[in-house]
Amino acid sequence: MLRYLFHRILQLIPVILGVTLIVFTLTYIAPGDPARLLLPQDASDEDVAQLKHAMGLDRSFFVQYYHFLFGYDGPGDSFDYKGLFALDLGRSYVSNRPVFGTILERFPNTVLLSTVALCLSILVSIPFGIISATRQYSKTDMVVTVLALVGISMPAFWLGMLLIWIFSVQLRLFPSLAVPSNPLSIVLPAITLAAMSTAVQTRMTRSSMLEVMRQDYIRTARAKGLDEKVVIRKHALRNALIPVVTVVGIQVGQLLVGAVLTETVFSYPGIGTIMVDAINRKDTPQILASVVFMALIFAVVNLIVDILYAFIDPRIKAQYIQAGKKKKRGWFHVISRKATP
Questions:
Q1: SS3 (DSSP) at 318
Q2: Whole-structure pTM over 0.90, yes or no?
Q3: Which CATH number fits domain 102-327: 1.10.3720.10, 2.30.30.40, 1.10.340.30, 1.20.1250.20?
Q4: Where are the domains of the chain?
């Protein structure tokens, strides 16, 4: 397990570097000049050229990417930074604040929204998936399947505006603007963010339960005279949860990414709002820091999910242990052959 964990952590490095290269390339070729956006509209071309030189934007693509990774020491101190490996990408072009400081300030709000949405999706999807699987081809199964398809197909921004029109404008039950300090204001963003995740997890739970319930040990448990609820809860559900946990782990990362649209619709003060504002204003340091931070969170969540496999399914843990024993025996066999005269 330790060897597997070490290899997975090493795999995060090229993933993060690949993400940074793609995002940096997109921001580099995107239209707009940050130096001209920072200066007044009547600024001369010489002033723009001087500011671009101070910011390091007049260098080539590879030089700028090198500065992005290892830091930049310009003519002045306003645009200096230590680079990605030091977790310092400088200051925002707009707010003049450290970009990672701004992200860490807003990240708890995004975590709160994603956590509420995840809990809501789990509480709804797993029971509905189990009910749909145990009543296959019934009217209940058809209704759950149709709702899951609607949830997958419905765009988050459209659902958010629809919920605002119904529950905020017409019924006046919930506020249209989300504020973390107001519990009621998180209801509509959480429902919007959890819709697609709930639909995906419901379909996965249903298909996984149907596959498990066709296994021989389920027939044996029923043949012993066990109650159907005991068979489903103790024998079927635990084995069916393995692919569900995989989907839930992936959905955690997708909830963080999907929060960009949801936070924009409800003006929620999270990372998504920061990213949209930074993109509109060509705030390159803030864009890069936000995307890298979210990519790192996504990769860490997937790593945690892989580790949880061993605790859910003992067979996976046994495979890791067996692989480690075989490798040790292989090294011992080589050493013994070398020591034999």
A1: helix
A2: no
A3: 1.10.3720.10
A4: 32-88, 102-327
End-to-end CA separation in angstroms for the chain: 36
Structure tokens at 324: 């480690």
Residue 190, pLDDT > 50, answer yes
Judged on CB neighbours under 10 Å (0-12, 13-18, 19+), 133 is buried
Q: Quote the CA–CA distance of 138 and 135 in Å, as a whole number.
A: 6
- Taking the CA atoms of the chain, what radius of gyration do you get in angstroms? 26
22, 7 contact by CB (below 8 A): no
pLDDT 10s digits, 105-143: 988 888 888 889 999 999 999 899 989 988 888 899 999
70 residue type, one letter? F
Is 168:188 a contact under the CB 8 Å cutoff? yes
Q: Would you say how long the chain is, in residues? A: 341
Which pLDDT tens digit goes with each residue over 256-310?
777 888 888 898 888 888 888 888 888 888 888 888 888 888 778 777 777 776 6
- How far is residue 157's CA from residue 23's CA, in Å, rounded to a whole number? 24
